[in-house]
């Protein structure tokens, strides 16, 4: 799902056929993605923040990678 919020866009992603592993990608500004699009992403470890959905605590310290 793509949600445009003015100055940023949230994209709710899940692995193909596995909605139990959802995550949210936040982009600055607008994007051309539409609901249902299949996209390919690559993570930049300098800019990613991962949190546990239930505890809201960070799940990975990327400084050690």
Rg over CA atoms: 13 Å
- Report the sheet-strand fraction: 25-35%
- Helix-strand pattern, N to C? EEE
Shape: globular
Mean pLDDT comes to: 79
Question: How many beta-strand runs?
Answer: 3
Query: Largest beta sheet: what is the strand line-up?
Result: 1-2-3
- Sheet having the most strands: 3 strands, antiparallel
Helix proportion range: under 10%
Number of helices: 0
Assign the structural class, choosing from mainly alpha, mainly beta, alpha/beta, alpha+beta, or little secondary structure.
Answer: mainly beta
Note the gap between the termini: 30 Å
Poorly predicted runs: none
Descriptive notes:
The protein is mainly β. It contains no helices and three strands. A three-stranded antiparallel β-sheet has the order 1-2-3, with no helix packed on it.
């Amino acid at each position: 799902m793509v949600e445009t919020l003015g100055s940023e866009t949230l994209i709710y992603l899940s692995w193909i056929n596995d909605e139990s592993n959802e995550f949210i990608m936040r982009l600055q500004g607008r994007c051309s993605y539409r609901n249902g699009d299949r996209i390919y992403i690559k993570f930049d470890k300098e800019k990613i923040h991962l949190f546990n959905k239930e505890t809201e605590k960070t799940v990975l310290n990327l400084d050690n990678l």
